[in-house]
Amino acid sequence: MSHHEMARCLRAWRDRLTPASAGLPSGALRRAPGLRREEVAHLAGLSVDYLARLEQGRAGNPSPSVLESLGRALRLSDDENAHLFQLAGHANPRSAGVNRHLTPGVQRMLDRLGDVPVMVLDAAWQLVALNPLCAALLGDLNGESGRRRNLLWRHFTGVASRVVSTPETDAAFEAAAVADLRAAAGRHRHDRNLRALIAELRQSSPRFAELWQRGAVARHASTRKTIRHPQVGQLTLDCDVLTVEGSDLRIVVYTADPGSPDARTLALLGAIGMHSFPGDVVTSGA
Questions:
Q1: CATH code of residue 37
Q2: Of 144, 194, 196, 254, which one has the fewest beta carbons inside 10 Å?
Q3: Locate the HTH cro/C1-type domain: which residues (predicted)?
Q4: Tens of pLDDT along the chain (286 residues)?
Q5: Which domain range does residue 172 map to?
Q6: In DSSP terms, which residues pair with 233 in a beta bridge?
Q7: Whole-angstrom Cα distance, residue 133 to residue 116?
Q8: What are phi and psi of 43, to 5 degrees?
Q9: Residues whose CB falls within 8 Å of the CB of residue 38, separated by 6 or more in sequence, listed in order
């Protein structure tokens, strides 16, 4: 691993970003160009100390998940992301298999749709990004890593959720989600991360193993979700899944009928924002 070259690149990429390009307020006059180290650390879900050590060439080998978070936060192109992974001695995850790259257009959409909850998932149901209102609604997954960022893993292993469900709605969601995952596995037969996820789910969840054995194949459709929020109460929202053309990314958007009680509750949540809400987080947001 080239610690010094990675440090130089990280500093240069941070310096070229403006607050507006990263979806942040410009604020007061800045002493230096680009984003502050604290801002990039927040966007990437890393500690400021760890990012400082990376930028100074003093950190150990960063994991692929850390590199992917940095790539998203710094708005790296495919070539720049490949260079970052090469410097760290890892294979480039964008070169084959499930495409998890958050394109600039999708990132701009995420930044500008501030009045509705939005999350971005890949074909394996791994969380790629979510906006602040979605984090306020469902719980902030930005601090999670590995399998705990995967919505199917969270659901089938019983991680607590704010989504209100019944045995009937759970059964419908599970059947549709597993069929969707099988379709993704058919499209990406050589994706090691996807194969590993399926193998671990079959071992960890008898329910998943049962559904997987059925062999159903389908794309996951839009639905409605009822969420019980610890501060603003219960609300039911339309949950629409939009596919990004030419990509495996899905944009999940939560909306309410204009003027409805649910719309007013959602607006209240947007007004009070993320104020260290206690409580659990979502397991099956799509």
A1: 1.10.260.40
A2: 196
A3: 28-81
A4: 578 889 989 999 999 888 877 777 766 666 767 888 998 999 899 999 999 999 998 887 898 889 988 998 898 887 788 888 888 888 776 665 677 778 778 888 888 888 899 999 999 999 999 999 999 999 888 778 889 999 999 999 999 889 998 999 999 999 999 999 998 888 887 788 899 999 999 999 999 999 999 888 877 777 889 999 998 999 999 999 988 877 778 999 999 999 999 999 999 999 887 554 444 555 555 6
A5: 104-272
A6: 229
A7: 7
A8: -65, -35
A9: 48
Query: Cα–chain-centroid distance for residue 271?
Result: 23
C-alpha to C-alpha distance for 63 and 66, rounded to whole angstroms? 5
Q: For the purposes of burial, counting CB atoms within 10 Å of the CB of 78, is it exposed (0-12), middle (13-18) or buried (19 or more)?
A: middle
- Check whether residue 74 and residue 154 sit in a common domain: no
Last residue of a domain, which of 63, 88, 113? 88
Based on the fold, state whether residues 129 and 74 are members of the same structural domain. Answer: no
Is 173 domain-assigned?
yes
Structural domain tally of the chain? 2
Q: Residue 192: which residues within 8 A CB-CB, separation 6 or more?
A: 97
In a domain, 84, yes or no: yes
Structure tokens at 163: 């989504």
Residues 81 and 113 in one domain: no
- Residue 279 inside a domain? The answer is no
Q: Examine the domain organization and report whether 117 and 238 are in the same domain.
A: yes
Pair type for strands 118-121 and 250-255: antiparallel
User: Are 83 and 111 contained in the same domain?
Assistant: no
Residue labelled with tokens 């602040």: 132
**3-state SS, residue 267:** helix
Whether 34 and 149 map to the same domain: the answer is no
For the whole model, what pTM was predicted?
0.66
- Nearest C-alpha neighbor of 245 from the set 75, 70, 88, 105: 105
Which helix (DSSP H) or strand (DSSP E) does residue 242 occupy?
strand 233-243
Fill in the amino acid letter for 23: G
